Each structure stands twice: as C-alpha cells, then as structure tokens.
Amino acid sequence: MSERLRPLIQRAVLDIVEYDYQTRTEMVQLNRQMPFCVMSYLKKGEALLRIQGREYRCRDGDAIFVPPNVIHDHVKVSREESEFLWWHFNFRTAYNIDVLSLLKLPCKVHMENSSEFEQKFFDYMEAIQNEETIALEVLACIFDSFLKSEKTQLAPDIPAVFMDIFDDISQRPTAGMNLKTLAEKYHMNPTYISNKFKEYFGISPIFLQRNMLFEKAKDYLLSSAMNINEISEELGFSEHAVFTRFFTEKAGISPKEFRNTGF
Q1: How far apart are CA 89 and CA 124, in angstroms?
Q2: Is the confidence at residue 130, as pLDDT, over 60?
Q3: Strand, helix or coil at 73?
Q4: How far apart are CA 77 and CA 27, in angstroms?
Q5: Which helix (H) or strand (E) holds 31?
Q6: The predicted structure's pLDDT at residue 173
Q7: What average pLDDT is seen over the chain?
Q8: How many CA atoms lie within 13 A of 175 on its CB side?
Q9: Residue bearing the bigger pLDDT, 131 or 55
C-alpha cells in the first residue's frame, strides 16, 4: 500500500450497511450493481464471480471484493453446500472521499489469516458492546490479505502529481492556498487542476481545503491551549476576523461559542 494513502485510511469512517453468515446450495445473482462495497468470504464450498469480463472461481478461504456500482454476477455452479460470510459497507473519509477507489484492489484473494478473520467476524455478529471497534478489526483482518496482494496498487488513473496535490491539501491545509498558488507550484492551469482533481477524488481542491481547515480549527479549539488569534495564524488566515467569519459560516456558531460549548 502506498504510504501516501495511510493517513487517508486512518481518517476514514467505516459504515456497515448489512452483513450475514449464510449456508447455500443455490445462488444466482446476475447483473447485480450495489451502491456500496461488497465483500464475500467463502468459508466452505465453491462459487463463481464474473466481473469486468473475467471469471474468478472461488474455493475455501477465498475472499472477493466488488467496488460500488460495478455490475457483476455471483453464482454457484454446483449443488455443493457452501458457507458465506459477507458484508456490504462504505469506507469514506469525513470529506466523503471513497478511500478504496484510490486503490486498485484485486477482485479475489486467498485469506492466509482465514481462522483469525472467521473468529473476528463471528465476534462482530455476536457483539453487543464495542461493536465499532470489532468491525474495524474485521475490516483490518480481511484487508490485510488484499493489501498484501501483489495485484494491489494505487489506482492507475490517478497521476502522482495529483496525489502530491492531495497530500498538500490534506496534510498541510492553509488558508493562503488557492488555485493560483497550486497552479504556480505544479506548473498547471488552475482550471485544469480543479477539474481533474474533482474527477479523481470526487471533490474540488478548494472544497477539500475548506473542509480540512474547518476540521483542523475544530481540533485546535477543543484540544489545544492556543487562543483564537493563534489558531487563526496557525491555519494561515490573514486576520482574526476572516477566520471567525469562515468558521461561523461553516459551524453556525463562532469559534468562541464552539470552544465554550464543546459542540
């Protein structure tokens, strides 16, 4: 996995839509298109995945991954009893960026840590408390096999220069950054940067920058001893009043009110 993606993955939020454990002798899911990620682990038996013009035959210990909105078939081709552990989920940052779209994950891997995964999955199904923590452990366990696969790579349609721009905005947000400064730094047309960035990440660079500044401001207000002037300077705002106006527009209350209420 690219080290560039690690901070993004660490900030992502797991939203589990549904999950189950099923024993089946028949399964015919044709031309299926789901608005979320699909993962299915074959505990025992056989199944066939057709996706993007290829077929993947699955046996005990294999896991499949299907990205959102990708048409696929998932079928059984025999009457042999098969056991499936599956879940549907989204894995996005607070800025609504689909983290997994930045990776080209293989459609099928064999789970080397299958026993550990199965135990965590069943723990999750039975959990009453700490459900979110266990869910993240399940995700980490299954993704360990996908991310270690030699077939996993950064999505090839995202040029390195746009990952650099993403890093600049997400890791070092500053109010002084704008399309003009990005264009000068990366020697590209401002409109081209904005359009291509939104194509790759689903969000404009300026919208991402404003969200990042807002999140940073909230963190400083709640967890640091800096006064509001210092926070304004730290985030690169030209004046205290500009920062206050920016924050109030985003939060609906002033920075001082936000800090006092902890809301």
Answers
A1: 14
A2: no
A3: strand
A4: 8
A5: strand 28-32
A6: 83
A7: 86
A8: 20
A9: 55
The predicted pLDDT at position 98 comes to 78
Lowest mean pLDDT among 115-129, 227-241, 242-256: 115-129
69 close to 114: Cβ distance less than 8 angstroms: no
What's the token pair of residue 262? 């902890």
**Predicted structure pTM score:** 0.66
Distance CA 131, CA 123 (A): 9
**What six digits make up the tokens of 173?**
């947000």
Nearest residue to 193 via CA among 164, 228, 232, 218: 164
Residue pLDDT, tens place only, 21-51: 999 999 999 999 999 999 999 999 999 999 9
Alpha helices in the chain (DSSP H): 6-10, 114-126, 131-148, 160-171, 179-186, 190-201, 205-223, 228-234, 240-251, 255-261
Q: Which two tokens stand for residue 70?
A: 């990708």
Q: Angle 160-171/205-223 helices, nearest 10 degrees?
A: 30
> What's the angle, vertex CA 173, arms to CA 171 and CA 177, rounded to 5?
135
Cα–chain center distance at 133: 17
Two tokens at 245?
């106006």
Length of the chain, in residues:
263
Of residues 54, 52, 76, 56, the one with CA closest to residue 64: 56
Amino acid at 191: T
